[in-house]
Amino acid sequence: MFIGHYGPAYAIKAVRPATPLWLFFIAVQIVDVAWAILVLLGLEKVRIVPGITASNPLDLYYMPYTHSLAAAAIWAVVATVLCKPLIGVRSWRAATWIGLAVFSHWVLDLLVHKPDLPLYDDTMKVGLGLWNLPAIALFLEALLLFGGMAMYLRRTTAINAVGRFGPPLFGVLMLAIQCYVFFGPPPPSPGAAAITALVAYVVFAVVALWLDRQRTHVAAVQPMDRAGRV
Ligand SMILES: [Zn+2]
User: Fold this and answer.
1) Per-residue pLDDT band at 228 (split at 50, 70, 90)
2) How far is the CA of 46 from the centre of ligand 1 (A)?
């Protein structure tokens, strides 16, 4: 899964407005960020096999440290514990939401991957395989992204035109990139796939940071409205 991972990021941001959106953008993809780095280091393995699924040419045959269920749970716990001292997340409740955002990655990957997600180490691999049904997989990615974004837009309000039109345009752009990933040419090499993923995740987080600053939480605006009327 790719853009659908940002659905939980937006949805959790709607619930935890004090935590910056970019942090959830990183959290939901931290498992893939680690995957890309470990692929570049040669510690996890992937090869390009066009046609191995109908929409994704990556044969993800060895990724026990990032995409096993056990590893995903550990990544989530580590993120929960470390985001307080490292990023200054203030409460354990906020930290727990970041941990849940991290874990959401594996749950959503389970829907689309072929059985290449180990339960632990490199064994007992699972995956429901929606990548073999590209139309349904694409619809699911869009539904998750725009569903989560709708929750976020309802709980925040734009302070300018960028804040009003930016998030939906950003969503359409992400959907276009998803279509290219699904139906465009396969990446030339595993390293290229890893670097492209890393760049995309960083750029998306930076755009989310920028766009989120063009909106404000609804609860913070309502008292000002009331004060204005008084
Ligand atoms: Zn993944």
Assistant:
1) very low
2) 12
Distance CA 199, CA 204 (A): 8
- In eight-state DSSP terms, residue 67 is S
Q: Look up the pTM and report it.
A: 0.91
Q: Are 182 and 56 in contact (CB under 8 A)?
A: yes
The structural domains of the chain, with segments of one domain joined by +, span 3-218
212 alpha carbon – ligand 1 mean position (Å): 25
**Cα of 67 from ligand 1 centre, angstroms:** 6
CA–CA gap between residue 41 and residue 70 (Å, rounded):
21
Write b or e for each residue in 74-106: b if 16 or more Cβ atoms lie within 10 A of its Cβ, otherwise e: ebbeebbeebeeeeebeeeebbbbbbbbbbbbb
Q: How far is the CA of 31 from the centre of ligand 1 (A)?
A: 6
CA neighbor of 6 nearest in space, from 126, 101, 137, 128 = 101
